[in-house]
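I had to read the description of the data format several times before I understood it. For illustration, here is how one protein appears when written out as sequence plus structure tokens:
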Amino acid sequence: MKKFKLLLIGIVLIVLVGFDANNFTPDNLVDDYQKEYLSEEINSCSDSAIKTYMDYRAITNTASTQYRFIDEHMNVDKSGLLIDGDGFIGVALGSYYGPIGSRYYFTLSSGAILPLVKVEAKSDNHTVGGCNAQDGSVIEFVIDSDVAHNFFGGNNGYVLNGNFNNYEAFNGEIIKVEAVLNEKKKAYNIEYIMPTPQQFDNQDIFKDTSGF
């Protein structure tokens, strides 16, 4: 006679929605970026595909809100982009997009999602309705141009020839804009409930009516 006792353990798999800023590359935005924060859609003031840039070192007023914000929250990534601790990319935006520190998800026609944080303000004198600049750009990346030129390249002395739309991960028109809220999405659980453990006592499992 043999005694068999089967012990089964339930397994809980926790899937987190988020972004690893330490492993950021621009291609993540196309390949596997997932929104970590709750957001609400707002009207996009332009669908422009043009994406210019400026060097963060051009912001020299140490008493300005943007200087302090960059100093306290942003780091230069290996690509030359300015990235905060949640993986949001530093950009200059017009007054339509609120104060310094406002964060957004910009979805492009390619399907890429750009997580952006406003670290510099475009002057209303240089924009149309506080939205796009005279050259048509809404998004102006704030970068370390030396590092970015080595990473992205450019044939005329400018990073990506002056337009980040020339980079595949950033290519495309703006089709949706969402204002990012302060609340993170909740992690969700997928729970696998195993059968109740079964116990075999005083039974010879090799004597079965099957005949084997």
About this structure: The first strand starts at residue 4 and ends at 5. The CA atoms of residues 23 and 191 lie 28 Å apart. The first helix runs from residue 28 to 31. Residues 1-19, 204-212 have pLDDT under 50 and may be disordered.
